Amino acid sequence: MAAERGGTGQDPELLRRLLRARDRMDAASHEAWTVPRLARVSGVSEAHFARSFRQAFGMPPHRYLLTRRIERATAFLRETDLSITEIAFATGWNSLGTFGRTFRDITGESPHALRAREKSAPHQPGRVPACILSAAHRPDLNIAVSEKRRQEAGDNRSVSQEKEVP
């Protein structure tokens, strides 16, 4: 039975359903992809979807979507002359401030600074396949953005160590 489930220990049919949801997020990362909507696309319950997605892809659905939006925004900043506001709204952000803050938290620089750096540096990617370049420039979101902010502020307690207030 374990051999039928593949390396993640999940049912192949469930993995296909999860891939369907992930593909929809990839194709329209600018749209609002809530867990209930993704669960409907996958045909599973919300709790089962969220748990299974994290197990299959190594991150929760929201973090995956943030990664895709930041990748797309980075590509727009490098390759177009669209304003930062236009890029923010085109990649699914409802607020320029939230876009800028999240972009800086994930990439370590503001959208304006990234664009200025990219414009000043000569780029000659040569014959490297686009998929490899994309993977090399993918933001590393191994912790939640809020947790990263907390760590940078000097509060090293993890979310699990915090005491709940009744």
Number of strands: 0
> Share of helix among residues?
55-70%
Radius of gyration: 18 Å
Q: Alpha-carbon distance between the termini?
A: 43 Å
Mean pLDDT across residues: 84
Range of strand content: under 5%
- Net shape: globular
How many alpha or pi helices?
A: 9
Low confidence ranges? 1-7, 162-166
Order of helices and strands: HHHHHHHHH
Structural class: mainly alpha
Largest sheet features: none
What does this 3D model show about the protein?
- The chain is mainly α.
- Helix content is 60%, strand content 0%.
- It has 9 helices and no strands.
- It is globular, with a radius of gyration of 18 Å.
- The termini are far apart.
- The model is unreliable at 1-7 and 162-166 (pLDDT under 50).
What is the structure about, briefly put?
By secondary structure, the chain is mainly alpha-helical. It has helices spanning about 10-25, 35-40, 45-55, 60-80, 85-90, 95-105, 110-120, 130-135, 145-150.
Topology, element by element:
Blueprint (H helix, E strand, L loop, with lengths): L11 H16 L7 H8 L3 H12 L3 H19 L4 H7 L5 H12 L3 H10 L9 H7 L8 H8 L14
Helix pairs in contact: 1-2, 2-3, 4-7
Task: From the structure above, extract its key features.
disordered N terminus; 9 helices; disordered C terminus; mainly alpha; 166 residues
